[in-house]
Amino acid sequence: MPKYLISFPAAAMQVPEHELAQVGHDAHAVIEDAKAAGVYVFAGGIDESIAPALVASDGKVTAGGYTWAPALNGGFTVLELTTREEAIAWAARIATACRCQQELRVFGLDTQL
After folding, report:
1. Which end of the chain is more exposed for a tag (fewer CB within 10 A), N or C?
2. Prediction pTM value
3. What pLDDT digit, counting tens, does each position of 82-111 carry?
């Protein structure tokens, strides 16, 4: 069954501070519904207090991410769903809870693993 990534960058969520607690409550409620429906794989956000690192094939570590790429931050949810239509419906629920549009992508899983 396909796994879908539903995500948003941190800058997309422009919510007044006094509404953040309600947004958190609403988002957690959607995740609880996904768990109850048996479609939840994982969810969370990038911990921006820990800087990214680039790791080369020889193990050398360089502080920071790719300088040419947009920052990878925000919230992420992975759900296992039967159809794209289901994924769109869940993404809409998350968008409502988070008060911002969600990007929807499907994982291309390696069937050799």
Report:
1. C
2. 0.87
3. 999 999 999 999 999 999 999 999 988 777
